[in-house]
């Protein structure tokens, strides 16, 4: 289980709540800011790969070049491992941005049709649709394009990932209602309704 898979449900619960009370503009701002932070990481890793390795670092410390567990070229090994990481970063950035934009659009389409009712439908429904796209984009870019994996393997892993996300989105739906209850209680009914209407553009 990756850290991304564990954190993903929390991110989309927060996104749906921000979407509800502040609207698509706030979600897009936070999404672009997150992409900027990830791009900074990409730039740092890319720069580290391009820097030439020092001679002393070419072999593992205390291991001679002829030993069975030596790494012949530490610089090349570093570049291979971190280079694949760059493709994962690119895939994650594209998938996250596309997923967030789609999530916001579907969320507000559903809310425009249902009004204040059926919170579960707009929150969970928008997540299920956006993550159907997200689950495959990241793998296609990171491993089909970036690592030359078989397309069938990529699609199989993407399907498993989406099944996990589908199940978590359904199971965590009560947390959306809990979040709404806590915020509405804190803000008060009138302020809460006003914020939701402003977020929807009514």
Q: Any overview of this molecule?
A:
By secondary structure, this protein is an all-alpha fold. The chain has one domain. Helices cover 81% and strands 0% of the residues. It has seven helices and no strands. The protein has helices at residues 3-22, 24-50, 74-114, 119-145, 151-171, 173-187, 189-200. α3 runs antiparallel to α4 (119-145). It is elongated, with a radius of gyration of 22 Å. The mean pLDDT is 83.
Question: Please, how many helices?
Answer: 7
Mean pLDDT: 83
* Radius of gyration computed on alpha carbons: 22 Å
What structural category characterises the helix and strand content? mainly alpha
Amount of beta strand: under 5%
Low-confidence runs of at least 5 consecutive residues: none
Q: How many strands, which pairing sense, and closed or not: the largest β-sheet?
A: none
Give the helices and strands as they follow along the chain: HHHHHHH
Global morphology:
elongated
Helix content: over 70%
First and last CA, distance: 42 Å
Q: Could you give the count of β-strands?
A: 0
Oligomeric organization of the protein chains: single chain
Please give the domain count: 1
Give a quick set of tags describing it:
202 residues, mainly alpha, 7 helices, elongated
Q: How would you summarize this macromolecular structure in one to three sentences?
A:
The protein is mainly α. The chain has helices spanning 3-22, 24-50, 74-114, 119-145, 151-171, 173-187, 189-200.
Write the layout of secondary structure elements.
Elements: H1 3-22, H2 24-50, H3 74-114, H4 119-145, H5 151-171, H6 173-187, H7 189-200
Helix pairs in contact: 1-2, 1-7, 2-3, 3-4, 4-5, 4-6, 6-7
